[in-house]
Design goal:
heterodimer, A: 269 residues, alpha/beta, Rossmann fold, four-stranded antiparallel beta sheet, 44% helix, B: 285 residues, mainly alpha, 10 helices, 0% strand, binds adenosine-5'-triphosphate, binds magnesium ion, ATP binding (chain A), nucleotide-binding (chain A), AAA+_ATPase (chain A), cell membrane (chain A), transport (chain A)
Chain lengths: 269, 285
Amino acid sequence: MSTLLSVEDLQIRTAARPLVSGISFSIAAGERVGLIGESGSGKSLTALAVLGLLPDTMRVTGSITLDGHPVIGARDRDLVPLRGRSVAAVFQEPMTALDPLMRIGDQVAEVVRRRALRDGTKPGRAEIASRVLALLERVALPEPARIARAFPHEISGGQRQRGAIAMALACRPKLLIADEPTTALDVTTQAEILKLLETVVRDEGMGLLFISHDLPVVATVAERALVMRHGALIEEGPVGTLFGRPSHPYTEGLVAAARAFDAALEFAP
Amino acid sequence: MSDTPVVSAGARPKSSMPWPLMVGGLLVGLHLVIALLSLVWTPYAVGDMVGGRLEGPSFVHWAGTDRLGRDLMTQIMIGSRIALVVGCGAVALGALIGVTIGVLAAFATRTLDDVLAAALDILIAFPTLLLAMLIVASSDGASLWTAILAIGIAGSAIVARLTRILAKRILSMDYITAARISGTASPGIVRIHVLPNIWPTLIVNFALQFGLAVIAEASLSYLGLGAPPPNASWGRLLQEAQASVYTAPFGAIAPGLALVSLVIGLNLFADGLREAADPTRRRSR
Ligand SMILES: Nc1ncnc2c1ncn2[C@@H]1O[C@H](COP(=O)(O)OP(=O)(O)OP(=O)(O)O)[C@@H](O)[C@H]1O
Ligand SMILES: [Mg+2]
């Protein structure tokens, strides 16, 4: 399989201190990779670096190649066409994931239209509307026609997150980056969204970079996982091996904590 | 379970109109009607000496006459027109310049943003009066245009500072990052997301600025830096009435009432708009 994303010796630092130090990894086309680590370990910064969206107060070195294009050192203007076609993202906070003043359908339509323009086609109003409905159906939103007309504050957090996933899918990206997309949701909704993410990514043959601090969650969606701590990559490997026979004490700790949590759940009435 | 739709079926319930919006709208509307009427009809021709000097209100001269025996009601009606024209012009100019600079600053790199922010602070501290004098001095005399220019530029700094803060907050939202990632370039982000989201707050600010602009216009005219005669600005009427304020107080009271009613109307209107645009009010039903 061809390499979709390759990160080599990525370093991110502010004037004051290093935030991410020398991490390297790669994601093959269609591969689902988890990025796990405690809060503040630099997971989101790594994702933003891949997207070329780090604040300009940070200095980035190393190399990132996304779909054959260099990201570090590229001008923002050169990244615009790369984004959307190659990569899309879903974020943690469903409340700010959607524009509060636009109907859900219009927000998805905007992405559909832009993606079509990029492909050199200009679909009509009806064509766009039907594609939007299909996308909302794809992410299993109930009554898609009504949700399309709703504003973000009129639907639930889980539904908003599904809407955000629909927008990401509308890009038809080769890589989907999901930064803790289920952290703000309750357990039932979390499981549904994870299932949805895994299915759509598998069906569309997209690569996935799934960020979380929750080990069982990563184990659900990813085939391979990277473990980060204090801005460095400390371990990586297939999910089974990593969580079955962790070699780094920190990963061991994570696994033990998850087991203890599971056990506690089983004893719960 | 949180996936059950909570969207309310059917149309959104009608919101009751907040009273400040209604009262403010009525006052401003009254001035607007008078201003429009003054284009086609005034009780007397504007410069004509049609009565005795400094008469009080009567059936023939509703607001009395000035020291040359000219009808005050006629001049106050024309004053409404000048106040509205200068107010509109200044707010429009201030909005155009202010929103443009504010949005640019929000997008600018750190250094440029710092420079712009400092420049705005200086411009805000710069007295409108001094600005007006400079503009009048560098053109051929005071006119409606110099007043609009001075008040508009002064207001634009405040609009720019507000726009910059509002836009920065919107730009930090995840949906902006998502839009960027999906390949929307900055102009698209401004048009699709930033402007619509900051607009409600800006509109309220424009209504407030309108009130300030009307006061500023009266002040400039009072000092002789406004529209020259025969443009009967309220500020100039006040200035002319000042000499005889003890013997004929109504000459000052009448234009004063006109000024106060328009400014109060605009402020109430702004308050009402703020209330009507408040998302918590709109959403919590
Ligand atoms: N704009 C910024 N300027 C300076 N430091 C920052 C900035 N954003 C993040 N950091 C720092 O970089 C470090 C890594 O942040 P990051 O957001 O990548 O953490 P994370 O692994 O995503 O954590 P979480 O699980 O809480 O989201 C943190 O120590 C944070 O304080
Ligand atoms: Mg994070």
